[in-house]
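Please fill in the sequence for the structure shown.

STRUCTURE ENCODING:
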């Protein structure tokens, strides 16, 4: 089990990251995005009803929106979907048709952003357990990994798109990392935001049950 704040403080570029877990009977979700290019950094998070999505901060500077503008979090019935791309909507559609998280992601693969081939990371949380998935490129094929965890107070798991900063960016090579969630909402949110690399961080969303917060670097947060 690791201290997530130390892990991120020592990692210049984990890319996009998901945390799912529980704190004192409250379900916890965190999702952050980082960026190195002007196009990637030109974003903010917007929450509208049950959907958190990415939006260009300056529309005049938006270049290719295909992999950077998407619904990151959507609520479905008693579950919440979180992902780093438009597979959020794929998962939603499959659940709405009586199918599963895994069946949805079996139709998708890593992003086509050569040479990085960014993994697609996804999560689904309900009142009892949560699923995490990573779809990444290995030996020119799509390696699909699925994990399921029971919700336990003060425990969570973290996954990101990359191991660290490099060229090309190396895909996350571990299983989801078990972390402690011992801080209340305000402390956890602020510590998480402050642990992300100042130059590369863009936005962060955190929820503890019905309580939520958004940090957008482009809005001066």
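FILLED IN BY: designer on duty
SEQUENCE:
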């Amino acid at each position: 089990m690791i201290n997530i704040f130390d892990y991120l403080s020592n990692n210049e570029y984990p890319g996009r990251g998901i945390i799912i877990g529980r704190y004192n009977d409250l379900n916890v979700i965190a999702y952050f995005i980082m960026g190195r290019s002007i196009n990637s950094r030109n974003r903010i998070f917007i929450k509208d009803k049950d959907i958190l999505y990415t939006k260009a901060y300056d529309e005049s500077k938006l270049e290719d929106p295909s992999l950077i503008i998407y619904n990151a979090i959507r609520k479905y019935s008693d579950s919440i979907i979180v992902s780093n791309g438009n597979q959020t909507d794929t998962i939603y559609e499959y659940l709405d048709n009586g199918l599963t998280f895994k069946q949805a992601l079996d139709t998708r693969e890593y992003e086509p952003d050569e040479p990085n081939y960014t993994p697609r990371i996804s999560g689904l949380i309900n009142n009892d357990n949560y699923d995490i998935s990573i779809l990444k490129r290995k030996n020119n094929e799509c390696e699909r990994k699925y994990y399921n965890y029971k919700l336990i107070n003060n425990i969570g798991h973290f996954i990101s798109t990359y191991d660290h900063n490099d060229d090309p960016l190396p895909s996350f090579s571990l299983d989801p990392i078990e972390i402690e969630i011992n801080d209340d909402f305000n402390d956890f949110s602020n510590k998480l935001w402050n642990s992300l690399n100042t130059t590369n961080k863009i936005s962060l969303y955190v929820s503890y049950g019905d309580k939520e917060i958004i940090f957008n670097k482009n809005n001066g947060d």
